[in-house]
Amino acid sequence: MQATLALAQEIGYARLSIEAVAARAGAGKHTIYRRWPSKGLLFLDSLLSLNEPVLDYPDTGDVLADLREQIYAAVDLLASPPWGPLYRALIGEAQHDPAVAAALNDRFIRPQTDKTIARLKTAQDQGQVSPDLDLDLVMAILSGPLYFGLLITQESMTHDYIDRVLDALFTGMSPRH
Amino acid sequence: MQATLALAQEIGYARLSIEAVAARAGAGKHTIYRRWPSKGLLFLDSLLSLNEPVLDYPDTGDVLADLREQIYAAVDLLASPPWGPLYRALIGEAQHDPAVAAALNDRFIRPQTDKTIARLKTAQDQGQVSPDLDLDLVMAILSGPLYFGLLITQESMTHDYIDRVLDALFTGMSPRH
């Protein structure tokens, strides 16, 4: 998996191949294929092996501050070459490879969703978040704008932008707040 | 472009090629290449040629109702085979082809953003939306959850789900609303 990450950083995801990884790692191609039937699955596991604790939520007692920190960390990670392009390439792969999509959701998205819900549940219990907020929606609502920026407009997202999005999500679109 | 759409529906985006389109359309391959240097760009133009008015915003005077209608229409279109998989494939292409990403933004995302901002500006003027809402964020905030559902979790989105997301966005995450 280290060979995969090293190669991906050097040549980009498009040119990555299991053959090239096998050569770099000094491993048999078929050994790799048995465990990772596609480059998408190999790459996903390699990314996950980095086990980035920076994507966990702090709990300082201030949910807005903690959300900011976590989202800043995510966006900063994506802005550090080559992670943004690599994550985008992985998500691109997930659009036509259902096994990669399933693995991405099982191994990354759902655990991240659970962490997000847990942090917000604590905040609800402490009266910092509306008791009526449907926690099943929070991952889509909080990460949606980030995925829109990463995958669609592909513009770099500043900390200021994150602050403004969080402010709008907390305040709400209705008048009289 | 009709040949492109017909073929894409029949064989899927992955198997689409400019050669196959040329054969279907009875056109010269080089004629097509001159106008559309990649299958991504050809496919984007073909999708746009459908010119779906259903993606415009109604203005009934009730912004929440109008947003619901527009988003229901978008989600219903994506749920009608083969449009969801084809749009996802196009966005997948945009992750590694900057020309497709640029064309998608110029020819579809930005016009849709402008329409969204215009409808919400009207709503602001009529006191239906907070005067403090930063309209530059609304496309990311409103469409973000949809793209999260389309590209990441890849679960079908119901009208009820849309209602709940819009409710959360209008109400806001803060307590005491």
Descriptive overview:
The structure is a homodimer of 177-residue chains. The first copy, chain A, contains 9 helices and no strands. With 177 residues, chain A is mainly alpha-helical. Chain A folds into 2 domains: 2-47, Arc Repressor Mutant, subunit A (Orthogonal Bundle), CATH 1.10.10; 52-173, Tetracycline Repressor, domain 2. Chain A is elongated, with a radius of gyration of 18 Å. In chain A, 36% of the residues are buried. Chains A and B meet through helix 6, helix 7, helix 8 and helix 9 of A and helix 6, helix 7, helix 8 and helix 9 of B. Chains A, B: InterPro entries: Homeodomain-like_sf (IPR009057), HTH-type_TetR-like_transc_reg (IPR050109), HTH_TetR (IPR001647), Tet_transcr_reg_TetR-rel_C_sf (IPR036271), TetR_C (IPR011075).
